[in-house]
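Ticket #4471: structure export looks truncated?
Reporter: QA, pipeline team
Priority: medium

Steps to reproduce: submit the single chain below to the structure queue and open the exported record.
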Amino acid sequence: MGKKIVTFGEILLRLTPPSHLRLTQATAFDIYYGCAEANVAASLAKFGLPVKFITAVPPNELGESSISMLRSFGVEPIPFIQGKRLGIYYFEHGASERPGKVVYDREDSSFSTLRKGMIDWETLFKDADWFHWSGITPSLSLELAELCEEALEVASKMGLTISADLNYRPTLWKYGKEAYEIMPRLVQHCHLLLGGADNSEQVLGIPTQAEDAEDQVFAAWMKQFPKLKTIVSTHRMHANASSNGVGASLWNGQQLLQSRQYNISHIIDRIGAGDAFMAGIIYGIIAWPDDHQTALEFAVAATCLKHSISGDINLATVNEIKALMSGHGGGRVSR
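Actual output as written to the record:
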């Protein structure tokens, strides 16, 4: 599997109070680096695929540390060194019926200074087969939405497979545009899309009815965006901050496949679970191009294991994920 994958997005510094303390109680923080596209890149590199990650970081120790972290996973970072600060987010772990909470501090970050025309996409894509992006980037500013569109136009012209996670975050869309005004012209380039039917109208501008089945919604997406070949969606059941069930579905234009469901108790960290799934489905489609059910099962097992791992990035290996797929869960010690 020699396909080179390029991902593009903002890497952030994450600060989390230890021991499930609330942010208002915090006197110290656990430090991690991550965020959507960086998490996907690190997982894919850990799975053994060659990955580039394009971002921007400041010329200081935090920028250097974030890039060193990516290299430690085997990612080839392509950092634009500019601006004055690394974006930050604070994450408060939830517990039981108290939900987790994210507070962003990313305005005027180095990544926010990127503009259309700054990046030579053709050069960066010349040895790549796949490009991955997420809805986080175009949510940050109109300029970054335009830059993302520029990347997608070049990737399309060069024949790359393109994937995206809609990653709808209402609190990030603050610059006067709604997601449905921006996202459709970006999604039109995609072949693989991760998203939920409940975001159809908000993100893609495609209205749905409450009684519409998931396959009906996804069929409407494929009609609107003819390049789409595969749509995946994750599902949480009986969820609170400490435990929930997870499963997923995959629509390939003909049938809606359903994954096995996992019941997860004692969640360690759910941040990055969607990114673990995204990396898993990309890997799965590359590894089993003619077996969508196996690809889906790999992705769901990956997201299940991520809930047991602190930080943004899934540290599970391919063999560990395959073992869980085969029914070898956490009931015994591996010796």
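Status: closed, not a bug. The export was complete when the record was re-opened. Leaving a note from the reviewer for reference: The CA atoms of residues 184 and 300 lie 27 Å apart.
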